[in-house]
């Protein structure tokens, strides 16, 4: 589903990704772990199409198409979802308004009709219930005044509503307590565990992987994948650290 070959990328003239290659097939969950400054978030931003990140070499193919040739909104319409480490606040725009506009914009890009207001409210409320999020929060401005855990639950609600094919989740476990971590993990499994979907989890810690069992774990260090393995690799990294594999 996603194939990255020899990817090089820089920001402000500084090279961050230095020949990264990775392939994620449909039906798989892959975890990316690594020390601070390794390039994990940069990888997510490059795949999501964030401005300011320049790809200088390599290729990325998503569902048979050249991902790097697509604008950020085109990537989203094609089924790519990027969950942020620090979700932004959007004052003045309610969650319901934001999510309905996002969903209908993607449907329009795919040649599909819009979802009615009534049908959308049913969808949004059901997703909020499944994530244990108070439905009143759907009426509030996007992420404004939300705790860290509420912001991450809100992102899972967004993902459930948009129904992407491929989710890139950048440190979704950051700032979560035990209950929120479990709810988010269950949300990822419910929304994205399917033969025609895939997930790339970017994380520092093994704890989220207790709830979302990955098919493969990769260590990213100095802009490259330096080691890959099964779920046991995450346990080893949690116990021993990155020093040996990142050397």
Automatic annotation (TrEMBL):
Entry keywords, A to Z: ATP-binding, Nucleotide-binding
NCBIfam families: sufC
Nucleotidyltransferase is among the record's keywords: no
Organism: Stakelama sediminis
Annotated GO MF terms: ATP binding; ATP hydrolysis activity
Family: Belongs to the ABC transporter superfamily. Ycf16 family.
PANTHER family in the record: ABC TRANSPORTER I FAMILY MEMBER 6, CHLOROPLASTIC
Annotated protein name in UniProt: Fe-S cluster assembly ATP-binding protein
A Pfam family that the UniProt record links to this protein: ABC_tran
Keyword Cytoplasm: no
Domain ABC transporter: 2-247
InterPro entries tied to this protein: ABC_transporter-like_ATP-bd (IPR003439), FeS-cluster_ATPase_SufC (IPR010230), P-loop_NTPase (IPR027417)
